[in-house]
Amino acid sequence: MPHIQQLSPHVADLIAAGEVVERPASVAKELLENAIDAGASAVTVEIRDGGVTYLRVSDDGCGIAPEELPTAFLRHATSKLRSAGDLAAIGTLGFRGEALAAIASVSRLDVLTRERGAQSGATLHLEGGAPGEVTEAGCPEGTTVVVRDLFFNTPARLKFMKRDSAEATAITGLVTHLALSRPDISFKLLKDGAETLHTPGDGSLQSAVYAALGREFALSLTEVKGRDGDLAADGFVTRPLNSRGSRSMQTFFVNGRLVRSQLLTAALEEAYANRMMKGKFPGCVLCVTLPFDMVDVNVHPAKTVVKFVNDKLIFDLVYHAVSDALDREARPAAAAEKSVRQIQNPRGDFYQSMTSEQFRAQYAADKPAAPPTKRPEPPDVPRDKPKAPAAPTTFRTGIPPVELGELGGRARLSDYVRRESPPPVPAAAVPPPSAPIVTAVAEATPEPVPEPPAAAAEPTQETLLPETPTPWRIAGEVLNTYIVCEDAEQNVWLIDKHAAHERVNFDRLRAQSGPIMSQTLLTPLVAQLGSAEYAAATERFALLRDFGFDCEDFGDGALLLRGIPADIDEDGAVSALEELAEKLANGGNAEPGAARDALLATIACKAAIKGGWKSDERELRELVDRVQSGEVEYCPHGRPVKALLTRRELEKMFKRIV
Ligand code: ADP
Ligand code: MG
Questions:
Q1: What span, in angstroms and rounded, lies between the C-alpha atoms of 183 and 203?
Q2: For a substitution probing ligand 1, which of 37, 93, 103, 109 has the most ligand atoms within 8 Å of its CB?
Q3: Whole-angstrom Cα distance, residue 472 to residue 20?
Q4: With a 6 A CB cut-off, is 64 part of the ligand 1 pocket?
Q5: CA 34–ligand 2 middle distance (angstroms)
Q6: pLDDT at residue 86 in the model
Q7: Closest ligand 1 atom, residue 73 Cα
Q8: Residue 395 has pLDDT above 50, yes or no
Q9: Per the confidence metrics, is the pTM higher than 0.70?
Q10: Quick one: how far is CA 419 from the chain centroid?
């Protein structure tokens, strides 16, 4: 047996240092956290060669007294913690008292510091952890730490360093995140002599986002403000049309700390569920604030993992905060008008044959719904102007409490993981980003409005009689798919009629509480399903009835359809049922609201006029009006329904202007 010996303090220090100081970015992190803890209002980071040869952090914080300077470099020396009791309520970023000792032991370090209000400052040099003499020095108030030749005395570790550029990128990421978490502090980053980041420190998150993440990203955002008692979720999220190809622009803070959290990501993305294409991701800077006893930030040493005491509460907070922001973003005026219109004509669709009240009364009495004619004439008067005040119908309260218990509870991880490998999206429906002439619609939407008008909650006489904008002129239809319109400002709009109609159907179905209206068929249909789908469907006849399907088991994988959703024709009904059964067999979306939405989206799609179909003029007019009002913006799968071609763009195309 080899002898057991206690390690020399030097070796023990090096081992400990390895835990704190892994790479230049970890040095920068510790020094920046010290600067923040010191109450700095401006911090500068300067690096050369990715921070390996030179890394400087300067702050204008409280400074260190000359006589305490050597102590700061001893292990377990800290001013932030006095007793074990303090551990429970730590308000600073650091508290272990290890960082300076660890960094000094693997580098050549200089510190220059002057306390606030002191006549002069002091400086100290350490070489591989061995301190020199503290000497008096003239310097500004605050502290500067310069770390040179990191790992000069641990060559093995030096070998593991990544390329300088990778280290510089890691430091940029770090400074960016700290700058976003503290908009009240001005952060500056210099890379090999060039300033690459500089936030104003004016206390506004928006200006920090602008400076740290760039103009383009900042302009794609809409504000989020969510409150639930002690809890808050504030910040910014991308508008649906400004979605991104990855999650790299999602930044979450919990009580000011940067965290990675699948729960927060899920809540964010759930709010975009029907507004964004599959395979696209929202970006965000979201700050969640909650009482300290509701979160454990110490579950991971790097402290980027959090554990919430009540996951559901946090999920709901973020989900609703983001959904509300997106609803508001989708034109507050249109939202107010929509709520009125729904009351006035609750099923203001093309195929209305009875009111939902009549239908529900019948359903409650357990009588089969009177078979509506398949495609009744559209109402003569397309839509009345709303007259009477009415209670508002909001997006969220419109989701009926249909029992989807068997689909599981809260969103599961598998749901968001699935979105990472999306099914191919029909590219033709999306305006190609590179197409110079078709401007993404987002540019035409007005500036984000911070608060919804009070009218959205309580319609007043004014909102009931909105000033009617000049209706878009329908110039025609091209490719049997796109409606071409001209607005009063001489802009050209292209509308994907299938996508728009799908959304109209979806919103209408979703706004109904209770089951979907069914039509009884004179001759039942037969749907032949795969075995898993058949099993899933036969177990859930009650649920299918809620979606308008009156099914009977026909044996051997076949279902007999005696009733189908009133909006769908027979072909559409069979394929909708197949899709529903498949969704049920695969567990559906676990969140009941999302599961219902997914099923409704299937029906909405089947009920929509198809690209390639000839539509009559009234159908087109109805759709164009709804698109113009802003009521319809995305199809339920998140594809945009309209694209803008401005007069200016046209004139540029024809070189009338340059
Ligand atoms: P910790 O931050 O965990 O307390 P450190 O080793 O990082 O441990 O720092 C030791 C002590 O040195 C701190 O507690 C603080 O009192 C002092 N200190 C370090 N950096 C600064 C700074 N930039 N400004 C003022 N004081 C500092
Ligand atoms: Mg520290």
A1: 5
A2: 37
A3: 64
A4: yes
A5: 5
A6: 66
A7: 6
A8: no
A9: no
A10: 13
Order of strands, sheet of 284-289, starting from the edge strand that comes earlier in the sequence: 221-228, 231-238, 284-289, 250-254, 257-259
Q: Which of 80-84, 161-165, 432-436, 487-491 has the lowest mean pLDDT?
A: 432-436
Ligand 1 contact, 100 CB (< 6 A): yes
Q: 8: how many CB neighbours lie within 10 A of its CB?
A: 9
118-171 pLDDT per residue, tens: 999 999 999 999 999 999 999 999 999 999 999 998 887 787 777 888 889 899
Q: Residue 469: pLDDT band by 50, 70, 90 thresholds?
A: confident
- Pocket probe for ligand 1: among 79, 106, 139, 146, the residue whose CB has the most ligand atoms within 8 Å is 79
Which DSSP letter does residue 608 get? Answer: S
Judge contact between 504 and 350, C-beta under 8 A.
Answer: no
**Residues 6+ positions from 454 with CB-CB distance below 8 Å:** none
- Helix, strand, or coil (residue 58): strand
Minimal-distance CA residue to ligand 1 atom 1: 97
Give which of 323, 503, 502 is closest to 395, Cα–Cα. Answer: 323
Question: Which residue's CA lies nearest to atom 17 of ligand 1?
Answer: 72
Nearest to 94 by CA among 19, 39, 179, 30: 30
Give the integer Cα–Cα distance in Å for 52 and 147.
Answer: 9
Q: Could you tell me if the CB of 38 is within 6 A of ligand 1?
A: yes
Of the candidate ranges 384-388, 528-532, 570-574, the one whose mean pLDDT is the lowest = 384-388
Residue carrying structure tokens 């973020």:
318
Whether 109 contacts 132, CB under 8 Å:
no
Quote the CA–CA distance of 346 and 352 in Å, as a whole number: 9
Structure tokens at 28: 């920068």
Q: For residue 450, name the pLDDT band (cuts at 50, 70, 90).
A: very low
Q: pLDDT (tens digit, 9 = 90+) per residue, 577-621?
A: 988 888 888 765 445 666 677 778 888 888 887 766 677 788 888
Mean pLDDT of 367-391: 37
The pair of structure tokens assigned to 222 is: 């809409």
Q: Give yes or no for residue 20 CB within 6 A of ligand 1.
A: no
Q: HSE on the CB side for 348, CA within 13 Å?
A: 22
Closest to 76 measured CA to CA, from 101, 110, 109, 106:
101
Q: How many alpha carbons fall within 13 Å on the CB side of residue 301?
A: 5
Residue 357 has pLDDT above 70, yes or no: no
Task: At 272, list the tokens.
Answer: 């975009």
User: Are 590 and 410 a contacting pair, CB within 8 Å?
Assistant: yes
Residue 483 has pLDDT above 60, yes or no: yes
Q: Structure tokens of 251? A: 């930044």
Instruction: Indicate the DSSP class of residue 610.
Output: P
